[in-house]
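Reopening: TIGR00282 family metallophosphoesterase still failing for me.
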Amino acid sequence: MRILFVGDVVGNIGVDMIHEYLPQLKRDLKPQVTIVNGENSTPVGRGISQSIYKQLLKDGADVVTMGNHTWDNAELYDFIGGANRLVRPANFPGDNTPGQGWTKVKVNQQVLAVVNMQGRVFMNPMDDPFATMKNLLPELDTDFVFVDFHAETTSEKRAFAMRYDGQLSAVVGTHTHVQTSDAQVLKHGTAFLTEVGMTGPADSVLGMQADSVIERFENQRPTRYTVQEKGAGLLSGCVVDLNDKTGHASRIRPILISPQHPYQS
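Support: Ran it again with your exact input. Result attached.
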């Protein structure tokens, strides 16, 4: 089983990069499941709209994951109940959170569970992702489990992956938008990458216009961040190969398309 995962889609440029490159990646890599994180995909870089959700699916996503900006676009409340391929963090507090924290995709004779989890260090208050995962595993009832772990710190992401090494097929980090170079298969068979990176404007600070971010650092006053809307784009992702019998990973490799790394099919 091969999984293609694409990191946080940011703004219009990110959506355009998906439209341009995801069909090419699927043609060349031939994944059985394609997952895209869409939590920054609106033009303002916060949340997702129904039209963008449908566009990501049309361009080739099988599942769309979210993160800490899940509820930032209020339109989501109107359609999340019927969006069966949209997955928000499973560890939101309370029992009545709209939407779902995981979904399943049938791949030939196997079933892949796609789980979205959010970290707690330097993030908004959430239920314990470690305990949530422990309680969720029996319910998933499959050896094939992919987790988009949306978190701020490298330590929390790696600790989570090592805690569930051998019980999860892959743990791939999102949220910090800069791809790390530590793609690996852990000792007991879980693929891990601390941060897959973002898909959006290349000439930016994590997708935002540089001037507003620089101003915040220089004067320490509140600043409205605005998504960079001009210039080249980049696409960050990874490919994970799983053993068809055990669900353990055999390989994980990053993908980066940018002005410095043009796509070569």
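The chain has a mean pLDDT of 96. If you still see a failure, please send the error message rather than a screenshot.
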